[in-house]
Amino acid sequence: MNCLICSGIMNFEAFVSSAAEGGPWAYEGWRCVYCGDIIDPVILRHRILSRTRELVSMGKDRGPR
Ligand SMILES: [Zn+2]
User: In the chain, what are the domain boundaries?
Assistant: First the structure.
């Protein structure tokens, strides 16, 4: 697998977080050895969710006055 940003080599790694960061979690994903970009299902979902949230807030601003 190659990086989507710089086409560099990506390493498969396991990522682990502590409970202090919003709850213990662990997942596996790909990290670029050149630019450090991480690709994994969780991050992809976050990107889609944040984009959806922007669309929703835009819709609220368009209410009748
Ligand atoms: Zn990269």
Answer: 10-58
